[in-house]
Design goal:
Helices cover about 35% and strands about 20% of the residues. It is of the alpha/beta class and about 230 residues long. The protein has a domain of about 160 residues: TIM Barrel, CATH 3.20.20. A nine-stranded mixed β-sheet has the order 3-1-2-4-5-6-7-8-9. Strand 4, helix 2 and strand 5 form a beta-alpha-beta unit.
Length: about 230
């Protein structure tokens, strides 16, 4: 599979924020989010072809019980099911960070970190007309999200840029026809700088308080800034 990077850091987002983890970032994505913070794994995929054995050897170099399979979109990566199965055999806790556009199909997973994309993710129609059409057709797949919810432990994570986004995501959640605990629905401010995140934190935090969702900071930005390998 094409791997953009493997690194050891702290999980920066979600319910496991702060947990030391090895990140395996697959290169390649079926979406083109306008605010993507890893364009080297999505917009212009780059990386090195690695075998599952190579990846496992690299993972075992680090003293972590948690492994995060991320991207790009890890669920379109070749051999992702084999990699997850090998990690399960090693007793690692597996988080899969996915936009939930590809069904789980039995993949080994201890926490599905599902991040369906809102309208704010769409690429510029004038600059990328073909990708705009593909992105809009693929970004929200309720049946696939339901398959992940039924597959095992999960969290739903939405990137929020403006208050109206919360109304949109609530409409999406209603379509899932599931009893979803609101503290498993995480709202994360859009931004790749401390200043941008803090600017949105005040009103987003208040929205979370009012509606019962969990506010999700981006710990990696606060600790390391916006850079690779973190």
């Amino acid at each position: 599979m094409l791997v953009s990077e493997i690194f050891y850091s702290l999980q920066g987002e979600g319910t496991l924020a702060g947990v030391p983890s090895v990140f395996v970032r697959a290169s390649g994505c079926n979406l083109r989010c306008a605010w993507c913070d890893t364009p080297y794994a999505s917009w212009a995929p780059e990386g090195v072809a690695r075998t599952v054995a190579d990846i496992i050897t690299e993972v075992q170099r680090h003293p972590a019980g948690h492994v995060v399979l991320t991207g790009g979109e890890p669920m379109i990566a070749r051999d992702i099911h084999m990699l997850a199965a090998e990690l399960r055999q090693l007793g690692r806790h597996i988080t899969i960070e996915t936009a939930a556009t590809v069904p789980p199909a039995g993949i080994a997973c201890d926490l599905a970190s599902l991040s369906p994309k809102l309208l704010n993710s769409a690429p510029d129609a004038a600059l990328h007309p073909a990708w705009r059409r593909r992105h809009e057709a693929a970004r929200w797949q309720p049946d696939v999200v339901r398959a992940w919810l039924d597959h095992g432990p999960w969290q739903l994570k939405f990137v929020v840029a403006q208050p109206a986004d919360v109304d949109e995501l609530e409409t999406m959640l209603a379509r899932l026809d599931r009893d979803l605990p609101r503290d498993q629905v995480l709202l994360m401010p859009e931004g790749v700088t401390r200043q941008a995140l803090r600017a949105r934190a005040a009103w987003l935090g208040e929205l979370c308080k009012a509606r019962g969702y969990r506010y999700a900071p981006r710990l990696q930005i606060e600790l390391f800034g916006h850079r690779r390998g973190t």
